């Protein structure tokens, strides 16, 4: 198996990890409001697309969700899950967050996730395990979200991953995001994200979202869907800062699963 642990990826991931820890650890400790206001949840249905320069375009669909709960005044816990398929391959993923947060300033936490994709052929399946950290900084209508850690798996590349995304709330129910991430499979990828909660009277927790990525090796990916938030009636910004962290961990690892069995057999197996 080819392993990518080059100096740029390692230093980039390490820098993000240091930055998120130093920037948020002090501010998240003495929270004036609880890390998680109350038990809450979200669920999303989406269609997805991705392609690289040595594979056919792939289409799929996912159902993912999260449940977030308070542990103490300063600490919260979130568990993520994902079910779906991509070009006939079944997808199954789980993720866990434990974090310390002050909703007025930021969040810092530890993360772990696993994603499995069943495929036809000699590989049988691809598996991605990740462990790392996350952080969020809040300032008025802006949020900066960071992740960093290490991944290893079955028929996928091992190495460091990291991401940095800036979000702007054009209003409290419209979030726009731009960022970049690096992982052993895709190297560097640019990201764009939008989510809008129309706050309909009959469905106040419903939101529409879309995101896209483009990067090395002619990588292209997109996702569009609808998300439902459960819990107190809040704006999108308040849900993101007072209830659940933005990230669904298995979704983040999906790009590290090779987009086609032929690609993985040729490029990832010795």
Overview of the structural elements:
The chain has 270 residues and is α+β, with helices and mostly antiparallel strands. It has helices at 7-29, 236-243, 249-253, 261-267, and strands spanning 40-51, 58-70, 75-86, 89-102, 106-118, 125-139, 142-154, 159-171, 174-183, 187-196, 206-215, 219-230. A hairpin with a 3-residue loop joins strand 11 (206-215) and strand 12. The protein is globular, with a radius of gyration of 18 Å.
Low-confidence stretches: 1-31, 262-270
If you average the pLDDT, what whole number results?
A: 84
Helix content: 10-25%
- What's the count of strands? 12
Strand line-up across the major sheet: 1-2-3-4-5-6-7-8-9-10-11-12
Relative strand content: over 45%
């Amino acid at each position: 198996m080819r392993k990518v642990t080059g100096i740029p990826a390692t230093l980039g991931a390490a820098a993000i990890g240091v930055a998120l820890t130093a920037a948020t650890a002090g501010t998240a400790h003495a929270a004036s409001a609880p890390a998680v206001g109350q038990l809450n949840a979200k669920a999303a249905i989406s269609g997805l697309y991705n392609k690289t320069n040595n594979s056919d375009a792939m289409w799929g669909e996912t159902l993912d969700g999260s449940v977030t709960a308070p542990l103490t005044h300063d600490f919260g816990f979130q568990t993520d899950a994902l079910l779906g398929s991509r070009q006939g391959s079944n997808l199954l993923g789980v993720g866990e967050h434990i974090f310390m947060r002050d909703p007025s300033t930021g969040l810092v936490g530890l993360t772990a996730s696993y994603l499995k994709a069943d495929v036809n052929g000699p590989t049988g399946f691809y598996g991605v395990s990740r462990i790392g950290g996350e952080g969020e900084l809040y300032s008025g209508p802006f949020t900066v979200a960071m992740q960093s850690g290490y991944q290893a798996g079955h028929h996928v590349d091992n190495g460091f991953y990291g991401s940095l995304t800036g979000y702007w709330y054009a209003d409290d129910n419209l979030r726009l995001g731009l960022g970049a991430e690096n992982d052993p499979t895709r190297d560097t990828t640019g990201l764009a994200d939008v989510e809008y909660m129309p706050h309909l009277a009959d469905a106040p927790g419903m939101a529409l979202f879309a995101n896209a990525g483009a990067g090395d090796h002619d990588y292209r990916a997109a996702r569009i869907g609808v998300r439902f938030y459960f819990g107190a009636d809040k704006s999108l910004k308040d849900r993101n800062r007072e209830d659940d962290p933005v990230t669904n961990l298995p979704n983040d690892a999906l790009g590290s699963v090779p987009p086609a069995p032929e690609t993985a057999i040729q490029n990832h197996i010795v």
